[in-house]
Design brief:
The structure is a homodimer of 744-residue chains.
Chain A: E1 7-12, H1 15-33, E2 38-43, H2 46-53, H3 67-74, E3 81-84, H4 92-104, H5 119-129, H6 136-140, E4 145-148, H7 151-159, E5 174-176, H8 183-186, E6 188-191, E7 196-204, E8 209-217, E9 222-228, H9 230-247, E10 250-253, H10 263-275, H11 277-290, H12 299-304, H13 310-326, E11 332-334, E12 339-340, H14 350-359, E13 363-365, E14 371-377, H15 381-397, E15 410-412, E16 427-429, E17 434-440, E18 446-452, E19 457-463, H16 465-482, E20 486-489, H17 495-508, E21 518-521, H18 523-534, E22 541-544, H19 546-561, E23 568-572, E24 578-581, H20 589-598, H21 606-623, H22 626-644, H23 658-675, H24 680-706, H25 722-729, H26 733-742
Parallel strand pairs in A: 1-2, 1-3, 3-24, 5-14, 10-14, 15-22, 20-21, 20-22
Antiparallel strand pairs in A: 4-15, 4-23, 6-9, 7-8, 7-17, 9-19, 11-12, 13-14, 16-19, 17-18, 23-24
Helix pairs in contact in A: 1-23, 1-25, 2-4, 7-22, 9-10, 10-11, 11-13, 14-19, 15-18, 16-17, 21-22, 22-23, 23-24, 24-26
């Protein structure tokens, strides 16, 4: 892989996106060439990464470069321009399947060892473990996050608005959160005056010291510590339940056990044992014996009691039933199957569930399958307050109106694991009463400390300085480029945010902010200010930390667009390059199945269109390549037309699919380029193509439709045959010919 | 009356306050003398004003000066320092009674003519008409308003908090207001570039022009015009009723028909005819015949149908009853007597009713006498929004806590009838469709205009420039003196407020605002900002227009103190002097009756204590009279002690009354003065008095208690014999002796 100023790296990933690329990339390459831009691919599929892990076992021809390492290195190159498509976060079964497929194709790679005992097995396992799970994002996300609703998507939502539940002024729904004893109220934060090591220690009542963790911190790095009181949490849950019982409002819990994977399952577990208090009081010992873990939800009870005699099972089921009589009604995940909100911790994920509730008139579903006003319990108050603010706003002003509302893009602090989401390796459930403290390893000075009790959840969190500086720069850049006010969401009541505020103010001084509206506001003030503008059709950039980035890029898009999947997600790399992430829908195995069985690919490449347009535009800006900018802007208009004319892929075989959608994109794109007057020569290049495509629309669509309805073969799932895949994905000779004729 | 830099003018008024003055004034005079301050009285009682109106009919000895005119002139004197006690706003019956009493005392004044036909009668009536009603305030209020909760009162409320209803997060209560078609959405505003005349005209559909009003405006004067759509208003009422029917929330209407005495009765009338639509549809013609006026409430129906045959009356009552079955439950003024919210327009006055509702968990009383969640309907959205903001705030944060909350004092624009409350002479109900316009009389230029329909309510409103400039100065002064942030409540969506904002920004430049926190915010933002500070124990000055002045000086005091009657109300006169208004409880005829029958005066002079302390303090500042300031500050501390020790007057004869309370005030005041170390000589003066008073506490209280329980006589009600009144009000020889001994 070489780096050039005029090169876009287009990632080859897995499954549906990879297939779609077979059809889209030839179009992109043909068009980009007109601006002198080369589009190079970089294969970061699971299969490619597996092959790259064992070069010594492959033939010269079979060997592939370690593209992920190359891409990681490329993030440090100022001219990097990477389009990153969704890829598989491989689970062990997926990895096994990929290995087997490669072995069957003649690649002499080792199988995944069930148990690693020998040194060789350990070595193999170590290499494979680097491929498992979310291995790609940490390597590539060497920048902060810039997410927005592209103009075309926004225009589409305005014209074809999604449904929005009406809000009643008399709604009883609300967010409820702790007023003390939570992470928010105990947060302490320091900034390292110089680089150094710290120890996280637990000091027992007997004076014994247990080192929980040692950290090396950089100069200017921010370190927070905080804890949630177990007792306060349980009292809070009990209060919310009693309040619901009294007011007749349904009870629901909203946490993020998947991401906050150490702390939130514990919180969830307390909710379970408080709601089903009588059950756990009665059967607690038995449950412990049979291995019930309330942190896994009530489903753990159902699971584990299967080992018990029928009569005992019946007794327990009756006791569960009795809890419902005692407690308020609980929101259901699936009322038909009787799956409650407390069944499985991953069923209700706050950043998705709260926007859904707010979009749905502030209601959730009850046991009888009817919508009801709901108390949304979110113990940690730090971010819960913004939902209450939005609920109050909807009660006062009614539901948001997608046809008139503005937009709230986000500039999020994310680089180098800033405000590390979850802080898993620095989160501890207290085994005894005592003191948690952070100590300067060199001097022994106690930097922060908390008195804790058994069961409390203590955690620390790191944020490096360089990402903050870059984040400020990104915010200023975005405010300037979009001529939109930008608000730093920094809460005056959060210790961490006040450390950041000092940095933000200092780093803002490094920029020319003349004529920009840049504010620093607390969370409530920020969301309210943004919402007041929103309903008046005005845009406001939210400049937030990592968690709010995650929450807001669901919350606002779901109001504005009905989904967060249509957001443009850019990672301007700290070294100066850019990474453009596409789609949020995963790599979609079901789509592949449909293609293989019926030769219809329903994958929507909207994310790729959007990312590519920005990639071109930014390449144009960086290299003073005006044509690149014109290409990008024309692509945006083409995408808008595509949405407006409903030329996105249908889910149904026989109708327009991914390939047909690509044709329309190419047609509209060429039309826009032919019609633009900024670069007459460029217009002349695309005029014939535009005319041909317009003239041959019917023919191409027919050719594309003709192939549908029968099974096809592409020579592999994880490692398809490129030639076969290309043949399947490019069945229109007319279209292929027109693209070739463009070659400039 | 002479004016001196070291003189306080203490007004003699009527009834209870005048009696209390007989006891309090000797104390005040004795103490003030120590700072070289003279306390002069100015009799503005109804009786004195009657006598002053007919000098030619009185003997030399009987004649009294025209004190109100003198006071009016004094307001223009920079050294004016006036303590204004509550006085009678005389109704005709009260005036007749005062005249009769004066006649019986040998004053040859004419009787009030029932009908004025002769020139003489007309002249008499004209003179008397100047004494009727609220004749005093317009003369004296030559300044803007400065209202605050004095420290002593605040301390008392913190120590002995009033009850506050708990707020449920699930409360369904809310404010509801029009989203268009109201005064707010149609407001236009201009500032006169130079002095000139304008005409307010109605142009009919046929082109005919009717001049409704001619106005002479000053340079820089702000003139607003706006209208409320009758159709939009009635649709809005119907919507609110349907919404309540659907959600089961009680319906209530909150207007200010007493003050907005032209526009709000019309609004109220529409509420009546919409709520009881079926009734008015059926009997409308009959009602018109018998003179039912819905603007006077449903009580007008009950009144007028008395003339109808019994069977017809019964039919109508049944039809009223049927309306209740059709419509949602309505809030009751008196559920026992069946008096609903729509019975009488003056029963529910928004600035009192909304704070009461918010203090009462957001609930009002239903037909069954139970508290219920309520929709508070306030058609005009301009100010209604602040109540919704506070309701949302209480749902989120719970009820305010008087023991910890801060305070929101007010600096209100009021001078020279700024933003004239009600604008009665410029409010018109449209008799036909057409155009209302404001025209420059000199040029014919149309300055503002609205298309209106029959039934719409159109109004204009004036605000002179000089009061605005003074208001800005007062805000800066208060922010400086109290070291408290000040917020100008100027809404970006109100045309009038944007005219004012330009002026405020310009006039702020005239002051040194270095180190002050002065903000300009929209209403929602301002109240939210203030409330966020309030619950954290922080104070925020609200700098508002006239209507918000009125609303907020009830709203916040009722949360903070449980009443607005304990607020200190200062009118810093534009010419430089100061007027200190005391109490808000009226002049209390029942108190006089109790005194005459049982020799117990329950009048609470707290307002006088508070006003006097500020009067002394400000006199000290203006004249560099340090002793005056020490006296004032000691008086404040004494008032605090009095409140803390519960030495306010009891309502029950036999217990401590107004006179005893005055003794305690004197005792605490002397103790504070003796204890202070800023002025040793002053301390020495008061030390013996403090010691005597402390030693003789029991004796004085016994002497004061001894006289209670039997009838007394003071030689008149409106024009009592000063010697007799003084004797009744100063029955403790020991106290009188001690005060005399102080004479400095």
């Amino acid at each position: 892989m070489t780096t050039s100023n005029q090169k876009i790296i287009y990632t080859i990933t897995d499954e549906a996106p990879a297939l779609a690329t077979q059809s889209l990339l030839p179009i992109v390459r043909s068009f980009a060439a007109a601006a002198g831009i080369e589009v190079e691919t970089s294969d970061i599929s699971v299969a490619a990464r597996v092959l790259a892990a064992f070069p010594e076992r492959l033939t010269e021809e079979q060997r592939v470069p370690d593209t992920l390492a190359e891409l990681g290195a490329l993030t440090q190159d100022p001219s990097a321009n990477i389009i990153k498509l969704p890829n598989i976060s491989a689970s062990v079964p997926q990895l096994r399947a990929a290995i087997a497929e490669l072995q069957s194709q003649g690649y002499d790679i080792p199988s995944f060892p069930d148990e690693a005992t020998t040194d060789e097995e350990k070595e193999i396992r170590a290499r494979y473990s680097k491929i498992l799970g979310s291995a790609v994002n940490p390597v590539l996300r060497e920048g902060n996050s810039d997410r927005r609703a592209p103009a075309a998507v926004k225009a589409y939502a305005r014209k074809f608005p999604h449904s929005m539940g009406k809000w009643s002024k008399a709604s009883q729904s609300h967010a409820d959160y702790m007023r003390g004893g939570d992470f928010f109220s105990s947060e302490q934060s320091i900034t390292m005056p110089e680089a150094g090591d710290v120890r996280i220690e637990f000091v027992g009542k007997d004076g014994s010291v247990e080192v929980k963790k040692e950290l090396s911190l950089l100069q200017g790095e921010v370190l927070d510590s905080m804890f949630m009181s177990c007792k306060a949490l349980r009292d809070f849950f009990e209060d919310t339940l009693n309040d619901c019982k009294e007011t007749g409002v349904m009870w629901s819990l909203h946490v993020k056990a998947t991401m906050m994977k150490v702390s939130h399952p514990i919180v969830f577990g307390h909710a379970v044992t408080v709601y089903y208090k009588d059950l756990f009081d009665k059967h607690g010992e038995l449950f412990e014996e049979i291995g019930v873990n309330p942190n896994n939800g009530l489903s753990s009870v159902y699971d584990k009691i299967k080992s018990l005699p029928d009569s005992k099972q019946e007794e327990i089921l009756q006791d569960i039933h009795d809890c419902y009589a005692e407690r308020p009604e609980m929101a259901m995940v699936d009322s038909v199957k009787g799956i409650t909100n407390l069944h499985i911790p991953s069923d209700v994920i706050v950043d998705a569930s709260m926007p859904a509730m707010i979009r749905n008139s502030g209601q959730m579903w009850g046991r009888d399958g009817k919508q009801k006003d709901t108390k949304a319990v979110m113990p940690e108050s730090t971010y819960a307050r913004i939902y209450q603010e939005m609920i109050n706003f909807c009660k006062t002003n009614g539901a948001f109106d997608p046809t008139t509302m503005g937009t709230v893009p986000n500039v999020g602090l994310m680089a180098q694991k800033a405000e590390e989401y979850g802080s898993h390796d620095k989160t501890f459930e207290m085994k005894a009463d005592g003191t948690m403290r952070v100590v300067n390893a060199a001097t022994g000075e106690v930097l922060m400390q908390h008195e804790v009790e058994k069961g409390d959840i203590w955690r620390a969190c790191q944020t490096k300085d360089a990402p903050i500086r870059d984040w400020v720069k990104l915010a200023v850049t975005r405010a300037r480029q979009s001529d939109t006010p930008a608000i730093f969401w920094l809460d005056p009541e959060r210790a961490h945010d006040m450390q950041l505020k000092a940095k933000v103010e200092a780093y803002l001084d490094e920029h020319d902010t003349e004529g920009l509206d840049i504010y620093i506001m607390g969370y409530n003030e920020a969301i309210r200010f943004s919402m007041e503008r929103l309903i008046r059709g005005q845009d406001t950039i939210s400049v937030t930390g990592n968690v709010l980035r995650d929450y807001l890029t669901d919350l606002f898009p779901i109001m504005e667009l009905g989904t967060s999947a249509k957001m443009l997600s850019i990672v301007p790399l700290m070294a100066g390059g850019g990474m453009y992430e596409t789609g949020a829908g995963g790599s979609a195995p079901k789509h592949v199945q449909q293609l293989l069985e019926e030769n219809h690919l329903r994958w929507d490449s909207l994310g790729e269109f959007l990312a590519l347009a920005v990639s071109l535009d930014e390449m144009g800006i960086k290299n003073d390549n005006k044509r690149a900018r014109i290409l990008g802007q024309a692509l945006d208009k083409a995408t808008g037309k595509l949405l407006e004319n409903n030329k996105s892929p249908s889910r149904k075989t026989g109708e327009l699919d991914n390939r047909g959608s690509h044709f329309y994109l190419a047609m509209y794109w060429s039309q826009e380029l032919a019609a633009q007057s900024e670069d007459a020569e460029l217009a002349a290049i695309f005029k014939p193509l535009a005319e041909q495509m317009t003239a041959n629309e019917q023919k191409v669509i027919e050719e594309l439709a003709a192939v549908q309805g029968q099974a096809v073969e592409i020579g592999g799932y994880y490692h398809a045959d490129p030639a076969k895949a290309a043949a399947v994905m490019r069945p229109s000779a007319t279209l292929n010919g027109m693209l070739e004729s463009l070659a400039v």
